[in-house]
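Re: the 121-residue chain
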Amino acid sequence: QVQFLQSGGGSVQAGGSLRLACQASGGTFARLPMGWFRQAPGKDREFVAGINWPGDSEYYADSVKGRFTISRDNARDAVYLWMNRLKPDDTAVYYCNSLRTWGGTQGNDYWGLGSQVTVSS
């Protein structure tokens, strides 16, 4: 069972930038398609971005396209989310997880604690 330890996040003003990092351990990370997800207060968890296991193909939710970038470093068992031009609507707890299927928007069953991102106007 691969487990994920997240770092980064925090509070920023609208228009600012943050980076999230996700460190995998305990399994074969390099073959997993990975994703970032988020859950805002009172809302369901939603897909944000996905990346294939070689790291050469990504896709994004429309709400973050052009502002967020997902990347991975398989040598370090890590995946990142670079968030630019942040908006108050981006405020949420962010989670990394492996994707159930490449091209899908569902994560696998195990969810970590997540990282809080707060964007003030």
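The mean pLDDT is 95.
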